[in-house]
Amino acid sequence: MVRNLVLVIDDDPDFRELVVLSLTEWGLQCLQVSACADALPLLERERDGLRAVLCDYFMPGLSPKDCAKAIRARVDPAVRVVLVSAAVDVSERAAELGLARFLAKPFDLDQLYDAVLGSREPSA
């Protein structure tokens, strides 16, 4: 099965919309929710097609630690789980949550692409 679905979890609707717009231009399908609790049933339902989860650090509801743990429990280990945050120490926060991937807001489209799809081929 082709893993072509990205779940974007962020309480900022403008941010979600910009990310989803970019991802769909790259041929990916997207689901978006504003809270981790809303994402959990989607993670279970869409498990087989999921390529990546982008999750903001600061959101209402579950703590970042509980959210990361709940996501990891519901997705295949091959799924890229990416912490997104405007915090200065986003890499440290990601490491504390056991997440290897992170994006520091603001980020550019190349960074988003690399986080979700992996590195682009170098231009010839």
TrEMBL record:
Keywords: Phosphoprotein. InterPro entries: Bact_response_regulator (IPR050595), CheY-like_superfamily (IPR011006), Sig_transdc_resp-reg_receiver (IPR001789). Pfam families: Response_reg (PF00072). It comes from the Bacteria. The lineage of its organism: Bacteria, Pseudomonadati, Myxococcota, Polyangia, Polyangiales. One of its GO terms (biological process) is phosphorelay signal transduction system. This is Response regulator. The modification 4-aspartylphosphate is found at residue 56. The keyword Cell wall biogenesis/degradation does not apply. Residues 5-120 form the Response regulatory domain.
